[in-house]
Specification:
Layout lengths: L1 H5 L1 H14 L8 H7 L4 H29 L1 H21 L3 H18 L2 H12 L6 H29 L5 H18 L15 H17 L1 H32 L10 H25 L1 H5 L4 H20 L5 H29 L5 H29 L1 H27 L1
Helix pairs in contact: 2-8, 2-9, 4-5, 4-6, 4-10, 4-16, 5-6, 5-9, 7-16, 8-12, 8-15, 10-11, 11-15, 11-16, 11-17, 12-15, 14-15, 14-17, 16-17
């Protein structure tokens, strides 16, 4: 604990990075914005697919750039992509303009994911406080989720005050510029440039070596797939629960003086704020959950709880209480699991490969979403309940597989 206090300033910076990064005021209303712009659900799905495909393509190269040419440099580049995407989203009126904005946004995501987590782990290693990975990452992730909660609450005021939803993208540029300056204030030794000059040959070689390392090493490979498959399933399913919550919100009147449109916007902002608050508490206390048992066993049981929650939800889709509780439970499990999983990956991965391996994990997650999304959409079109039962059962099977592997390794 004393070691952490000595580095409180930098750890707080890590936290505020996440808080500012998550001030995406437009996020709760993204679907509404596309629909208001005349984009139908099919093309909205294509936009999200474009995002995941671009992330998939650039995840590993971005991790290699971070490991070889500087993490701070890469994060600066990623925020430039984000800010450009917000500007294009603001100006967008047609599908193709939104597609360009989504490509820029995806580049920001690809250049960001894994890089900052790797930077935190490097900082802990250099200062001999690596045993606190789960606690520190859980703390910084809680800042991120608090940022999402603040964004959800502030967005309610903004969306009612601003002349159009599109202006939320312009407002989001402000915290991103501040975050850009914050990153530039990080210690120089966190940049760790291993190659002074970029050479394409060296870049490709290191890229191939890193991918081989991630999939050849049994422990790394298992951790990557465990993390990526859970995230992909969670992200794919949660997008289908959100419209159910939105539809049910119309049966609850918050302010009699407001019309249906304003009421829906307020309800969406409030429920997201509450979800992110609970998620922040979960993430911050993930290290306490870790005390309950071995990390591998805990990860397996989270598969079990999540699978049961999704199957249970399939039988109560007409109950706002059950749907909301299940929605919250999914976020709680995700945010307890994430810090523990990051520590597991960090522990089984070589120090100079971390950013790349975390990018491989994110890339694998994107690939699985590209696979899962159309399957989930196709089944949900036929029956939402059936879709939830199938993917809940899928999670239970992975739980059984994890337990069998754990027992085999413990012999």
């Amino acid at each position: 604990m004393e070691d952490l206090k000595q580095h409180k300033k930098q750890i707080t910076k890590f936290g505020f990075y996440g808080l500012l990064k998550n001030l995406r005021f437009f996020e709760p209303y993204m679907l509404i914005y596309f629909l208001m712009s005349g984009i139908n659900l099919f093309y909205i799905g294509i936009l999200f697919s474009i995002r995941e495909i671009v992330v998939y393509i650039f995840e590993i190269p971005s991790g290699v750039i971070a490991d070889r040419y500087g993490k701070k440099t890469e994060l600066v580049i990623c925020f430039i992509f984000y800010i450009l995407s917000f500007l294009v989203f603001f100006m967008g009126t047609y599908f193709y303009v939104f597609a360009i904005a989504m490509v820029l946004y995806a580049l920001g995501e690809a250049f960001r994911s894994g890089t900052h987590k790797s930077m935190i782990m490097d900082f802990l290693d250099k200062n001999n406080i690596k045993d606190s990975k789960t606690k520190v990452y859980g703390l910084t992730r809680s800042y991120s989720l608090i940022g999402s909660m603040i964004a959800s609450l502030v967005s309610i005021v903004l969306v009612l005050w601003l002349p159009d939803i599109r202006y939320l993208f312009l407002v989001a540029i402000i915290p991103y510029l501040v975050d850009l300056l914050l990153i530039m204030s990080y210690p120089k030794d966190l940049n760790e440039r291993r190659d002074v000059e970029f050479t394409f040959k060296s870049f490709i070689r290191h890229n191939i070596e890193s991918v081989k390392y991630a999939f050849k090493d049994k422990k790394v490979r298992r951790s990557v797939f465990n993390s990526a498959s859970y995230q992909a399933t969670f992200k794919s399913i949660k997008d289908y629960i959100q419209p159910i919550v939105m539809t049910m919100s119309l049966s609850f009147v918050i302010f009699n003086a407001l019309d249906e449109d304003a009421h829906t916007k307020i309800f969406i902002g409030l429920i997201y704020a509450f979800i992110y608050l609970i998620s922040a508490i979960s993430s911050k206390n993930a290290y306490r959950v870790k005390k309950l048992g071995d990390s591998t066993t805990l990860i397996a049981y989270i598969w079990l709880v999540t699978g049961l929650a999704i199957i249970g939800l399939s039988f109560f889709l007409d109950s706002i209480i059950v749907v909301t509780i299940a929605f919250l439970l999914l976020y709680i499990m995700m945010n307890i699991r994430k810090p523990i999983m990051v520590e597991i990956i960090g522990d089984v991965t070589k120090k100079d490969k971390r950013a790349t391996v975390l990018s491989v994990e994110a890339q694998t997650s994107s690939l699985l979403i590209v696979i899962f999304a159309p399957i989930i959409g196709w089944i949900a079109e036929y029956s939402m309940s059936l879709m939830l039962v199938i993917f809940g059962s899928f999670m239970l099977l992975i739980y059984v597989g994890n337990i069998l592997i754990f027992k085999k390794n413990s012999k």
